Amino acid sequence: MPAWMEKSDLPGGWITAEYALLPRSTTTRVRRETQGLSGRTQEIKRLIGRSLRAGFNLGLLGNRTFIVDCDVLQADGGTRTASVTGGYAALCLALKDLVEGGSISSEVFLSPVAAISVGILSGTPVLDLNYAEDSQAEADLNVVMNQAGEFIEIQGTGEGSTFSREVLDTMLEYAESGIQQLISKHISDIS
Amino acid sequence: MPAWMEKSDLPGGWITAEYALLPRSTTTRVRRETQGLSGRTQEIKRLIGRSLRAGFNLGLLGNRTFIVDCDVLQADGGTRTASVTGGYAALCLALKDLVEGGSISSEVFLSPVAAISVGILSGTPVLDLNYAEDSQAEADLNVVMNQAGEFIEIQGTGEGSTFSREVLDTMLEYAESGIQQLISKHISDIS
Amino acid sequence: MPAWMEKSDLPGGWITAEYALLPRSTTTRVRRETQGLSGRTQEIKRLIGRSLRAGFNLGLLGNRTFIVDCDVLQADGGTRTASVTGGYAALCLALKDLVEGGSISSEVFLSPVAAISVGILSGTPVLDLNYAEDSQAEADLNVVMNQAGEFIEIQGTGEGSTFSREVLDTMLEYAESGIQQLISKHISDIS
Amino acid sequence: MPAWMEKSDLPGGWITAEYALLPRSTTTRVRRETQGLSGRTQEIKRLIGRSLRAGFNLGLLGNRTFIVDCDVLQADGGTRTASVTGGYAALCLALKDLVEGGSISSEVFLSPVAAISVGILSGTPVLDLNYAEDSQAEADLNVVMNQAGEFIEIQGTGEGSTFSREVLDTMLEYAESGIQQLISKHISDIS
Amino acid sequence: MPAWMEKSDLPGGWITAEYALLPRSTTTRVRRETQGLSGRTQEIKRLIGRSLRAGFNLGLLGNRTFIVDCDVLQADGGTRTASVTGGYAALCLALKDLVEGGSISSEVFLSPVAAISVGILSGTPVLDLNYAEDSQAEADLNVVMNQAGEFIEIQGTGEGSTFSREVLDTMLEYAESGIQQLISKHISDIS
Amino acid sequence: MPAWMEKSDLPGGWITAEYALLPRSTTTRVRRETQGLSGRTQEIKRLIGRSLRAGFNLGLLGNRTFIVDCDVLQADGGTRTASVTGGYAALCLALKDLVEGGSISSEVFLSPVAAISVGILSGTPVLDLNYAEDSQAEADLNVVMNQAGEFIEIQGTGEGSTFSREVLDTMLEYAESGIQQLISKHISDIS
After folding, report:
1. D134: which of B12, B101, B156, C108 is 20 to 30 A away, CA to CA?
2. Does D168 lie at the interface with C, CB-CB under 8 angstroms?
3. Three-class SS of residue E79?
4. Distance of alpha carbon A45 from alpha carbon C2, whole angstroms
5. C8 in the Ramachandran plot: left (φ > 0), alpha (ψ -120 to 50) or beta?
6. Residue B36: enclosing H or E segment and its boundaries?
7. Burial E172-189 (b: 16+ CB within 10 A, else e)
8. Tens digits of per-residue pLDDT, A74-85?
9. Do B69 and C20 touch (CB under 8 A)?
10. Which residues of F touch E168 (CB under 8 A)?
11. Is the pLDDT of residue D159 over 70?
12. pLDDT digits (tens, 9 = 90+) for E23-78
């Protein structure tokens, strides 16, 4: 998940993301989106972009645009949350070079960001569902949080099902716990 | 917000939605989307479709597809949640005719559905934000629920801001209260 | 039918129009034109634009472009001629503000413009055909004129039929009479 | 201007036309329309198609679709009216073979069709304007008629100008005279 | 095959080509490419452009872009090689005027360029195959060369067949001989 | 480079290929082709498809279509020839399963296929050029051959340069030698 930087003529910085499934990243081959992006892809790339922008002080980026390319080689489970977590890590690595080189202030880093999916499977909450679990879950929630415990995005989409407030609360707790683990194990040492 | 019905050759029914802003529905004219739908429009029409499908037993619709056209004449505040609430009412009216005519079972109606937006403005929760409030809110949540108090969709998107679990809980309570009012005042008598 | 104004860098002004049928403006739902405009829509928007430009001294508009949005909520009869007449009225209202505010000369108004359709139904000329009449007419003519009695556009399109010079003359007389009535009753007091 | 025939599964026949300017058919090179047809091209191809269909009894064509390709090699003057006249001739030649071969009834031919443009130049009516005349004309009318003297299409488009009823009558007379000459000299012997 | 010149703001010149089959240039009508160019068309226009650029010193063209339009009126045989040869001649004629007028140095002309196709038919090499020969050839080679005997492009595409080194050598010899004939007979007197 | 199989209703089989550069496969990020494929991409995918089809007896594939996805993760040198060689290997692996399972005859395999690029760098022939070499080569040739020593495709494209027959002969010898090495080392044991 590489991060690419471009100079622009506008003041202030920007972070954006692109997302694609390789045709054989899935069990059944998916078509390339060569004639316009699908609604699903646009929804996901916008979610990733908003989530990544919440992790950095855009005003300190200078007139630089960062593009994070999330190309999924193997799609098993929550590709949009994995894209947020991996994309945040890629941006940290790219920005650390610029911070160490003195071209960007170290205050560009806000509280570290990660994301995870959580579902209810036969009444049991399950974190980071794989493809088989995801297709049988009774409820499904994507959560983006930072290390400070603040929410950046929550998306609970219940196509064909509904969920109670109690289930929502359980899922939020699982998600928070999972995200803090992701950050402490994989993110905090590079951010 | 009219509902249109088409026969298909497939067994089972389907509900879908389309969404568009009229060019002068907004303070500053928006361009028509005549060369492909924007990411925002696709995101919204998918949300409306999923929400409406949760209000009906699709298996009882027969091989009928219902298209709900959400064309916004004046955009002041949460047009996506207004589209869900209004679209649900339009579908109820259309289906009541079919139920009364005997071509669809009255069990097609599940628990009535409505949606609302809620935000935090200078620390105070505000329901159903208008345009001016929406552009200054510190946090923003769209909620779709049914009369049974079950969640269908929640989308909290915090571009440029974050929100705590406590604020999320407050917003969820306001949303639930607002949705139940919408249903009891406007929806329950037609569904 | 709102008129929207934009500043441009070019000297001289311009007036243009857009046209769309809302999906349920018609008896049978029409598809949205989200992948390019149809030939019919392009033909109509060009006719409206040419007709509206004939009503004003473009050289006095300054470097302003006016866009008239003709979104048809209910399509019963001649929507293209109704768009010309209504669009002209909308432009007059918009320009009166600018003239009264002193930013545009009052000489921008040329002779007032209106449009009407006329057909032959079972041998009888009929003005301003509705949908049922239009689909049975033997001949069909759209006319755009100004109050001075000069023609701006005439379009007689006889798909599947032909019409004699005598019938054309009768239709032109009916159209002229109808247009002068439209202008004197609805247009002349606002232009 | 070749006519191409395709078999279809539908009962009854159809005639359609396509129109394009070769890039160097004009004094200043025009771009190819490879990303969707312009409004002008769509308007013209629809006019040609309607005009050609008025010259034949479509019910006698069998389930055949005829496509007339109007590719303009040199554009000097009224290319849309030349396309109607030439396209009618091409269709006659194609249909005569089918009539002589016995697969289509000779009653497929209705009254022969031709088209011409007429304008007013410094107060004088001018038939079949060339490019230089067309760009200076005060009024401009395209007329499609048959040998029986019936009108099929009239299009008077006065971008930037208007014309009186008297001028219209003069232009109609010139057009009728020109069309009857075209038919008697070039069309009647092949139809 | 006309050559069109445009001024650009960039230093140095450029030569590019466009290619299209008229719908009835072929035995069976081909569709117009109005919704994006096919792979075949793009492949051919790129080949023509590269070949033509090899015939001129681009640095001496000044900031001019030349567009060569290759519209095929009748497609019998190697239309891509005919487009190279004809396009080179068109460019020579256009550039001679500019050289004679003193705006471009006469050193802009490099060694003259032409192209030809060659195939193997029942074991016999055949130069400049026509449509009937081309569809039965066992091997097929397109060659672009200059008068100095240097290769500019060779494309041997053997869909459904293969060819030995010996056959390749024979085809190359025939191609060279044919190209030198084309240049000496048709090209050398205008370049 | 995975191979994907689809059943079709047509008799006989087919092999096709798709090709894309991941945005960061290159030193400078390339844009995704989401609004139609570029000419370069179409040219390459057609070359790969033709080359792969030459390696198999399509008539023995049954009504199956194989799609080979060539997504370049790191682009250093001849990606089109690497796609042919790798795509051939992927197809062999896929077909061996079908042959061993008895659904396809083992005679589906024709002579094994591979491809390589060769160039001239400061007068010295270089096989399988990397990016740095490729951008400085004086001549460049892509060759597709089979183990029997027959040519399937040769493409010598000399944008900005030309090459003599002697240089072409040298490059062909190097290419043949390289391809036979590729086949004997990497391909022959899996085909």
Report:
1. C108
2. yes
3. helix
4. 35
5. beta
6. none
7. bebbbebbbebbeebbee
8. 998 899 999 999
9. no
10. 151, 154, 172
11. no
12. 999 889 999 999 899 999 999 999 999 999 999 999 999 999 999 999 999 998 89
pLDDT at position B10, please? 67
Cα-based angle B5, B11, B15 (whole degrees, multiple of 5)? 35
Query: Given D4, D22, D24, which is nearest E29 (Cβ)?
Result: D4
> What is the pairing mode between strands A124-127 and F14-21?
unpaired
What is the model's pLDDT at position A17? 97
pLDDT tens per residue, range A123-166: 888 999 888 888 888 888 999 999 999 999 999 987 678 999 99
Average pLDDT, chain F: 91
* Cβ-defined contact of A163 to B151 (cutoff 8 Å): yes
* Whether pLDDT at D11 is above 90: no
Residues of D in contact with C153 (CB under 8 A): 156-158
Q: Which residue of F has its CA nearest to A29?
A: F4
Helix C79-100 with C39-53: angle, nearest 10 deg: 40
Enter the ipTM. 0.90
Contact B4 C24 (CB under 8 A): yes
Indicate yes or no: CB of D29 within 8 angstroms of CB of E71.
no
Give the DSSP H or E segment for A80: helix A79-100
How far F108 CA sits from the closest chain E CA (Å)? 14
D93 Cβ under 8 Å from any chain E Cβ: no
Which of F1, F30, F32 best probes binding to A when mutated, by most A CB atoms within 10 angstroms? F32
Give the whole-angstrom CA distance, residue F180 versus residue F172. 12
Quick one: angle between helices E39-53 and E79-100, nearest 10?
Answer: 40
B34 chain-C contacts, CB cut-off 8 A: 33-37
CB contacts of A32 in chain F (<8 Å) are 18, 20
Q: Are D63 and D7 in contact, with CB atoms under 8 Å apart?
A: yes
Q: Could you tell me the pLDDT band of residue C10, with boundaries at 50, 70 and 90?
A: low
A150 and chain B in contact, CB less than 8 A: yes
Of B39, B160, B162, the CB nearest to A43: B39
3-class secondary structure, D37: coil
Confidence band for E10, pLDDT divided at 50, 70 and 90? low
* Nearest CA-CA distance, residue A110 and chain B, Å: 11
Q: Is B55:B112 a contact under the CB 8 Å cutoff?
A: yes
Q: Is the per-residue pLDDT at E5 higher than 70?
A: yes
**Average of pLDDT values for D77-89?**
95
Measured between CA atoms, the residue of chain C closest to residue D45 is C39
pLDDT at A77: 82
- Interaxial angle between packed helices B39-53 and B79-100, expressed in degrees from 0 to 180 and rounded to the nearest 10: 40
- State pLDDT tens for residues C43-84: 999 999 999 999 999 999 999 999 999 999 999 889 999 999
- Residues of E whose CB is below 8 A from D32: 18, 20
Residue C13 in this model has a pLDDT that exceeds 80: yes
Q: Report in angstroms the alpha-carbon separations of C119 from C116, C123, C134.
A: 10, 9, 7
pLDDT tens, position by position, C73-127: 999 889 999 999 999 999 999 999 999 999 999 999 999 999 999 998 888 889 9
Going by pLDDT thresholds of 50, 70 and 90, the confidence category of residue D60 is very high
Q: For chains B and C, count residue pairs whose Cβ atoms are closer than 8 Å.
A: 44
Strands in E14-21's sheet, in edge-to-edge order, are E3-7, E64-72, E14-21
Q: Is B37 on the interface with C (CB under 8 A)?
A: yes
Chain D residue nearest residue C46, CA to CA: D39
Residue E40 at interface with chain D, using a CB cutoff of 8 Å: no
Query: How far is the alpha carbon of C35 from chain D, nearest alpha carbon, in Å?
Result: 10
C-alpha span between C182 and C115 (Å, rounded): 8
Contact between C94 and C5 (Cβ < 8 Å): yes
